[in-house]
Amino acid sequence: MTSTSRDVARAAGVSVATVSRAFSEAGAVSDSTRRKVLTEARRLGYSPNPAARRLITGRSGNIGIIVPDLANPFFADIIKGVQRRAREGRQAILVADTDEQARLEGDALRSLARQVDGIILASPRSAIEDLPGDLNIPIVLIHRQAPGWWSVTADFAEGVRQALVNLRALGHDHVAYAGGPHLSWSGGMRTESLRTCAAELGVHLYELGSVAPTIDGGLAAADLALATPATALIAYNDVVALGAMRRFGARGVDVPGGMSVVGCDNTMLSQLAVPSLTTVDVPRFEAGEAAVALLDRYLADADAEPIEQVLATALVIRGTTAPPRQT
Amino acid sequence: MTSTSRDVARAAGVSVATVSRAFSEAGAVSDSTRRKVLTEARRLGYSPNPAARRLITGRSGNIGIIVPDLANPFFADIIKGVQRRAREGRQAILVADTDEQARLEGDALRSLARQVDGIILASPRSAIEDLPGDLNIPIVLIHRQAPGWWSVTADFAEGVRQALVNLRALGHDHVAYAGGPHLSWSGGMRTESLRTCAAELGVHLYELGSVAPTIDGGLAAADLALATPATALIAYNDVVALGAMRRFGARGVDVPGGMSVVGCDNTMLSQLAVPSLTTVDVPRFEAGEAAVALLDRYLADADAEPIEQVLATALVIRGTTAPPRQT
DNA sequence: GTGAAAGCGCTAACAT
DNA sequence: ATGTTAGCGCTTTCAC
C-alpha cells in the first residue's frame, strides 16, 4: 500500500541505508544524493514508518500529559502550552484525563509509559508514593514538588500573600479561605502561606476547609463564609470564586460591597465574571512550555540532577475587591 | 533493560508464540499455560512492546483528535467524551490543537496520520477539499457534513429555530444574529435556519455578519446589535453571548430588560453568567463518544457506507430572555 | 559517502 | 494446543 524505504531506494538507485540517512538529520549523505532521495520519496508519497523507526531506536518522539480535568480551563491552558512547544519539536502529544480521580493516575501513567518518551503529570491528586514506581520513564511534575523529581511549579505562596496584604490594606481583618482537594500540593502551599501571613498581619483567618474545585464547591464555600465574621473570601481557584459569587448574589450579598472575593489562576473565567474577578495570576501556557523544555533536558541526560523550576505569580486587581462596608 | 517475550517464554517454559497468544485475547491457549505465562510476565515486569506489535499488525490502538481550540470549553468537553470512550477500549488519544488556524489542520492531519488508526476532526475551519486527500486513514468529522464522509453533527437548525420561536412568543419581532467563522459548517446551518424561520414567523432578522468566536467578538457584536432596532440577540456561541452581555452592561443596556440574549452550546459558561444564559444545548460529551463509536465501526469495515449521525439539540431557557420592554 | 547485513520484538502462517 | 519460522520497515554497525 504505502511505499517503504526499499521502494524509494530502488527508485533513487541507492541502498535503503542511504534512504535512512537522508531522512535522519545527522546522516552523512552527499547533498546530491539526499536531494535525489527526497525527490523520489515525495513522488512516491513516502515517509518513514514511525513504528519501525521506534522499534529500533526506542524513541517514539511522543510525549504524554496527564491532567485531572480537561474541562477546567486551567488545565486546558497548560495543555495548550505543552502542545505549542511540542509542535515545534515535531512531537505528538498523548493526553489522559483522570476525571479528578487519584486512582486513575496510576493507570494513565502505566498505559502511557510504553507509548511515549516522557510524561508530564499535572497537579497529581495522588500521593507521590502511590504512583507506580517501576515505570522507568522520565516524568516531569507540574504544580507538585517532591524530592528527586523534576518539576515546574508556581510561587502560590507569594501570590496569596499579595492577596492577603492587599485585602489588609483595604481594611479587611477578617478573611475566609476556601481550600481545594486534600492532596493538592499547590493547595497546601496556599494554606500554609495564608496562615503565616495572617499571623504577621494580624488578620483573622477563617479556614473553611476543603471544597470541590467546582462551581458547586463555590456555592458551598459562600455559605460557610457568611457564617463567619469575614468580610472577604479567598477561594482555591477561579471556578470556586465564581461559584461563591453566584451564591453571594442569590443571598443578597453584594460583591464587593458586602463581601470581597479573590480567586486564583487568572483563567479566562475571571474576566468573564461580573464584576470581573480579582485573582492571583498563575502562568499556565508557560508552565506547559517549561515542562516540555525540562522533559527535553531530562531525555537528553537521564542522569542529570532533577530541576525544580518555579514560576512567578502576582495579584491581579479587578472588580471584586474593595474596602469593607462601614458598619 | 525491559524484558521481552523471549524472556517470558524461557521463564514459563513455552515458545514466544504462546506468549504472544496469551497476550492477545483471541489466542487459542489453554487456561493453565496462559496463567503460567501471565504469572511469569508479571514477575518479570513484561508487557508487549507496542512498537513491535504495531509494526507487524499495522494497528497502533491509538486515535487522534484535532480541535480548533482546546481552551474553548466546547471542545474540551468533546475531547472528554472521546477520552472516556477511548479509555474503555484501551485506546490512547493523541490531541492536536490548531489555534483556530485552518492552515494547521492539514499539518495536524498529516502528522497524526502515521501515528494512529483513525482521526476525529472536530469543527474543521478548512474547506473539505483543502484537506490532504492522500492520507489513507479513516476520518470521522464532528460538526461538519460532506458527501462520502463519516460524521457526527448536531441539529443546530432545530436548536436556533426553537430559540427564534421562543423569542417571537415573548414578543420580539426584531432579532439580531451574530455569526461565527466563515467556514464553520454549523454556523452556516444556524444562519440558514434562522433566515427560513424568520421569514415564516414574520420576524425581522438583522444579520450582523461574522465575528470571532471569542469574548472580543462578543463585545463587537453587542455594538452592532445596538445599532439596529433589534430587541434580542442570538449569538454564535456562549462565549460570544457572554462577551456581548459584558458590553451591553458597559453601555447601560439591561439584560434581559433592554435586550434579550441567546447563546449556543450550553457550556458551563452559560451557567456562570449573571443572569444565567438562555442557550441552545448541544451535546458535547455525546458527540465525542459517538465519534469514537463511529470510528470503531469504520475501522472494522473500511468499505462500509459512511454514516452521518445527527444529535438532538434543544433550547434551554434561563435568565437572559424576557419580553421586550414596552416603548 | 555508500552498501551489505544483522537485527529491534513481535505476530501470523504453517507445521505438528 | 503449541512450536518453528519468516518477516514487518527501519537503523546501525561494519566494510569498502
Q: Can you tell me about this structure?
A:
The structure is a homodimer of 327-residue chains. The first copy, chain A, is of the alpha/beta class. Chain A has three domains: 53 residues, lambda repressor-like DNA-binding domains (434 Repressor (Amino-terminal Domain), Orthogonal Bundle), CATH 1.10.260.40; 121 residues, Rossmann fold (3-Layer(aba) Sandwich); 128 residues, 3-Layer(aba) Sandwich (Rossmann fold), CATH 3.40.50. The first copy, chain A, contains twelve helices and twelve strands. In chain A, strands 2-1-3-4-5-11 form a six-stranded parallel sheet, with helices on both faces. In chain A, helix 1 packs across helix 2, helix 2 packs across helix 3 and helix 9 crosses helix 10. The longest helix of chain A is centred in the middle third of the chain and has 17 residues. Chain A is elongated, with a radius of gyration of 25 Å. The N and C termini of chain A lie far apart (80 Å). The mean pLDDT of chain A is 94. Chains A and B meet through helix 4, helix 5, strand 2, helix 10 and helix 11 of A and helix 4, helix 5, strand 2, helix 10 and helix 11 of B. The first copy, chain A, binds a DNA duplex (16 and 16 nucleotides) through helix 2 and helix 4.
Sequence-ordered SSE layout with sheet pairings:
The structure is a homodimer of 327-residue chains.
Chain A: H1 5-12, H2 16-23, H3 31-44, H4 50-57, E1 62-67, H5 73-88, E2 92-97, H6 102-113, E3 118-122, E4 139-142, E5 150-154, H7 156-170, E6 174-179, H8 185-201, E7 204-210, H9 215-226, E8 232-235, H10 238-250, E9 260-265, H11 268-272, E10 278-281, H12 285-300, E11 308-311, E12 314-316
Parallel strand pairs in A: 1-2, 1-3, 3-4, 4-5, 5-11, 6-7, 6-8, 8-9, 9-10
Antiparallel strand pairs in A: 10-12
The structure holds a DNA duplex (16 and 16 nucleotides).
